[in-house]
Amino acid sequence: MHIKFGSQHTFYASNAAVATEILKTNDRHLSSARAAPPSVLIDGQIQYSLLWNECNDYWKSLRKVCRTELFTTRMLDSQSQIREKKVMDLMNFLKTKQGQIVQVSDVVFVTLLNLLSNMIFSKDMFLYEGEDEKRGMKYLIRDVTLTAVKLDISELFPILRPLDLQGIKRGVNNGLKPIFGSWAETVRDRKESKDHSRHDFLDVLIQGGFSDQTLDGMILEMLGAGSETTTSTIEWTLTELLRHPHMLKKLREELQAVVGDRPMKESDLPKLPYLHACIKETLRLHPPAPFLIPRRSTETCTVLNYTIPKGSQILVNAYAIHRDPDTWERPLDYWPERFIGSELDYQGNHLQFIPFGAGRRICIGLPLGSRATRMVLGSLVKWFDWELPNGMEPDKLPMTESFGLTLQMDPPLFAIPKYRT
Ligand code: HEM
């Protein structure tokens, strides 16, 4: 589909065949450059970005560090105990909240931020409760991430850009300073101490000789891209399971058979196919990045008889592709069983299922996102029963989606945890 808004040509790829052309066949010209929103064009920030940069040498060097140092199976395995502990911290916190209404995404978000901050800094940086700075920082990171991906009217009418009518640029700009400030001391101390024995992400970046701006940009993008997407997947999955009690029961039976009464370990994950199927089915119906990340064509190209002019914005509509009735049986039903015994994965090999994207810009954090969603969701289901406030029946739960570059539950899920003995 082609739309022209203002001076902007926008092309939507809404089936797997067109997505293949954009993400694979013509990826050099159609998937190399991002269509960055004006909010990230501030203060030269984009030149330090992995997410918004085009596929230049700088981008390649950052991706290489992530691929070879950060998200390798060896590195992830070596940190699995820390993540397992963070998940149990969440369970212990929820025990103190029994009988009270909890906004599920709020507490899961903190867990994800701490999983990531341990990977980056080898320490917790965020708190569940308390009015101190660390708690505020969680909201700031969320605000900046969500503000940066809001639809900006000046994308359609670039002439309006300097006016920043919606205050998006201002919002992001104001948020960045305190965020960068929150880890400035840690970075300085680590550089001065010259002790790089932790082998965490900060050590890797410092030893790789990357500049302070790169450090700030990379840390922010890891925290931003890694937390919101994963949290949304967990929130939607828990909601779907509450609406489908027989699936919840089936999942608990699997968890009981494999994990029993002890805490979950990441080494359990390969033995939990139904858990994986539930997460996959959520990623199909509720992909956290419904249009992936917008691209911009660097050359004029012809795609299945369409001419895409140089400079056009290209949105790969994963949301529509995942619900295409030509590809999917019962496309609108939440039905995890479709993935049992199926070869279909989300590694970018099957273009009808691309929650992490595909091709050269596929999500770099996929291996971590895949583990973290299963660990947190599996533990929430294993250790707690969840009731809805005011005796609401699960089938009355609102399933409204708020659309932007990210897809969120709106209103979010509120539920009351009860520890399962
Ligand atoms: C369920 C979890 C996640 C989902 C569904 C998800 C999804 C995505 C998607 C759709 C893209 C864009 C791909 C494209 O444009 O083709 C992306 C890119 C990216 N993701 Fe994720 N992501 C998740 C978790 C993570 C985690 C845990 C991290 C890091 C800690 C991360 C970091 C990134 C980065 C840095 C990029 C930009 C890559 C580039 O442009 O080269 N993501 N992700």
Structure characteristics:
single chain; 421 residues; 5-stranded mixed sheet; 15 helices; 12 strands; 48% helix; binds protoporphyrin IX containing FE
Secondary structure layout plus pairing:
Elements lengths: L1 E4 L2 E6 L2 H10 L1 H4 L2 E2 L22 H14 L2 H6 L1 H16 L6 E2 H18 L11 H16 L4 H4 L11 H26 L7 H7 L4 H32 L1 H14 L14 H13 L9 E2 L4 E3 L2 E3 L4 E4 L1 H4 L44 H18 E4 L13 E3 L3 E3 L4 E6 L2
Parallel strand pairs: 2-8
Antiparallel strand pairs: 1-2, 3-5, 4-12, 5-8, 6-7, 9-12, 10-11
The protein binds protoporphyrin IX containing FE.
Bound molecules: protoporphyrin IX containing FE
Fraction of residues in helices?
Answer: 40-55%
User: Which descriptor suits the 3D outline?
Assistant: globular
Global mean pLDDT:
88
Work out the number of β strands: 12
Distance between the termini: 53 Å
Can you list the strand order of the major beta sheet?
1-2-8-5-3
- Uncertain spans, ≥5 residues at pLDDT below 50? none
> N-to-C SSE series?
EEHHEHHHEHHHHHHHHEEEEHHEEEE
What is the CA-based Rg, rounded? Answer: 21 Å
The largest pleated sheet is described as: 5 strands, mixed
